[in-house]
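User: Hey, my collaborator sent me this sequence without any context and asked if I could get a structure. I don't really work with proteins. Can you help?
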Amino acid sequence: MRSFLLSLVLVFAVTFSAAAEEIVCNDRERIVESLVSDFGEQLAEVKDIEGEGLLEIHVSALTGSWTALLTKTWKLSCVVGNGHDANIPELLDTMSPVEA
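Assistant: No problem. I've predicted the 3D structure and written it out in structure-token form, which is a compact way to encode the shape of the chain:
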């Protein structure tokens, strides 16, 4: 499931990079604050996408929502995918803890 989710997010990232006007980008802190306050999402996984930035997966075990952010080194984040997954608690159990 985890591999599928990350693959799906990467497909979104490639698809949306061609249509930049549809991507929501902002300061990382603002987007994360919104994910926490509006959707109850928390950071669950971070992957280094070499040459592109960090792919962050934020999820809510309560609502089943997830959001994928691509964050550049200068702290600009863009939403590259989002959705709902009824199996979020199971997904969280299989993910490695996020290292600070």
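In plain terms: Residues 2-94 form one domain. You can pass these tokens on to your collaborator as they are.
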